[in-house]
Amino acid sequence: MAAADREFPVPDLGPIDLGGRAEIQPSAPLPAFDMPGGRAYLAHRVREKKTELFAIVCEQSVPPRIEAMSSFRAIENNNLLHLMDWGVVDWSPEHRRRFVCIFERPAGRRIMERLDDVIEGVADDALVRVVLPQLTSVLRDIAQRSLSCGALNPTNLFIRESAAAAVVLGDCVSLPPGYAQPLVYEPLDRALADRSGRGNGTIADDLYALGVTLLSLYLGRTPGRGLDEQTLLQARMDKGTYSALTSGTRIPQSLVEPLRGLITDDARQRWTLNDLDMWMQGRRLSPKQAQLPKRAPRPMEFQGREIWHVRGAAWAFSKSPIAAAQVIERGELDRWLRRSLNDEPRAEAVANAVRSATAGGRASNVEERLVARVCTALDPPGPLRYKGRAIMPDGFGTALAEALATGEGGQALAEMIVGQLPAFWISVQAEYKAEQVLMIQQFDAVRAVLENTSPGFGIERALYGLSPVAPCLSPAVADHYPLTLGDLMAALDAAGAGAGPGRDPMDRHVAAFIATRNPKLNERLLATLAAETARRPVGVLAILADTQRRAGPPKVPGLALWMTSILDPSFKRFRNLKKREEVRAAAQKAAREGVLDALLSIVDDPKALTQDHHGFLDAMRRHESLTARINKIEESLGDRSDVAVTRGKRVAAMVASGISLAGLALIVTLMAGVK
Hints:
Keywords: Kinase, Membrane, Serine/threonine-protein kinase, Transferase, Transmembrane, Transmembrane helix. This is Serine/threonine protein kinase. GO terms for molecular function: protein serine/threonine kinase activity. InterPro entries: Kinase-like_dom_sf. α2 (about 125-145) runs antiparallel to α4 (about 205-220) and α4 (about 205-220) runs antiparallel to α7. This protein has helices at about 65-75, 125-145, 190, 205-220, 230-240, 240-245, 255-260, 275-280, 310-320, 320-330, 330-340, 345-355, 365-380, 395-405, 410-420, 420-425, 435-450, 460-465, 485-495, 510-515, 525, 535-550, 555-565, 570, 575-595, 595-605, 605-675; strands at about 15-20, 20-30, 40-45, 55-60, 85-90, 95-105, 110, 155-160, 165-170, 300, 305, 385, 390. The protein is elongated, with a radius of gyration of 39 Å. The protein has four domains: about 5-105, Phosphorylase Kinase, domain 1 (2-Layer Sandwich), CATH 3.30.200; about 110-280, Transferase(Phosphotransferase), domain 1 (Orthogonal Bundle), CATH 1.10.510; about 300-465, no CATH class; about 480-605, no CATH class. The chain has about 675 residues and is α+β, with helices and mostly antiparallel strands.
């Protein structure tokens, strides 16, 4: 990346600490050392400041090669950019945490700034005597550690122009192997894959890149410069890569043999490190002829174009699966393979692919599934092709990481695994490898995870299982770049201060990350995440408490207070209002201490809950008893009222009769007196 193409950070920012071991100066950019993985900044060790260093701040949506960094640091080779340190820092220019890699600064300049640059070509004698031996020694050291480079091309080479001229291979760790590698420097099978799905690669892939790099340095330009990627890919498939890249170019005799040996599309025929050693020692090997793809006498017509070979058919079919499915189902592909190409083994492999794809009857996406398997049968070394994606079997981890980090979702990737496409790819390979057994077992486990849509499973769990170095991608903590369980807990603790009401710290990413990184987790706890409202918060707290116990940090008051804000349904499990408020107050007090186990023991105290339950039952029984007594009294009072009314009527009648008789007697007496 050139200086003119970048933004410079604020100039007055202070140094950024990397674990007390090194400091990075965000106000001192070094655009000359920018890498595809990120921008470069001045750096130095805290205790020793003489060695000139620079830091790459990783900016891509895919994780760097953290698992390989210790091995790369252990390589002592002056022709390899020395990796000094790495880790996550608080990157103040963006107010977020970033992963950084710190390297020793190379003494020379970059050989080629951009792939479309034209430079003065390097003499073939210098290539054979200096460049080839030095880069071969680097690749040998990398291979001895069972690693690959995945980034060998002229833009990642530095030249130290001195009495002892030296070529230095640059950054191999800030991105996954091949992620930023230009297609022309990738073998054809990997070039046909998505850049995030190329997988780890092998030293054989690096040897191919070495061959194209030698050719580029001799020409002073990238082979195929001026052609778009699709045109160059088509030419490589039609003619073979060596012929496509050297067409019209006179190659000196001193380079013909190594270039032919390295730039071959069949990895089994490609020169090895031992072959290179023997050649450089003066032993001439059997000359290799350019391996041309088997071409049919008559083409197969498809979508207005002519297809002459099987790899071209796979490439074309993957771009138009509906039309390709019709060609397959009509038998046109089978006839072309048997009659025109005269390739019975390939025809049988395709027939087996058709049978396996349609074994379960016609279902949704049947055309895509059919074409995916047929493409693999046509081009076994190539990537798995499905719904516009092209992924090598060991590239699913990085592909999922990119898809979920960028919001693509990764549904097609999940369907490929559930549809057992990786296992089918393994079944059609020409050579059996021991690691393929482990690969099948891994994909079987991932398929089971994908078929379970409960929290803690699904595509998120698949990501963290297939990419052990991926940070947790939960929106709540993504800016903190948590790589470990301890990092995650610290990030959740920091996020707790700004958590809004009702937000839950346990989203699908957090649950899956914990379940994957903590193999000792009791997975029955994950079932509580799908439980009813009152039980889920307690389940969340139990999982987080277990994580804190195993990974720290010792106190997470922000997270604990966040948890109390969502525990109201759990508090309501206590029926006694006084007890409920006591528990709430105790929980708030415990939360301020930041120990989740203590908070859990208060909120989910079986003894207290049992006592409260028994007290509630006793209260219910007392309530029922009192209600019965009240009803009985009310019934009794109702009976007495009836008696009183009846007796009152009788008394009133008697009194009325008495009064009437008395009145009558008085009248009679008065009348007698008158007389």
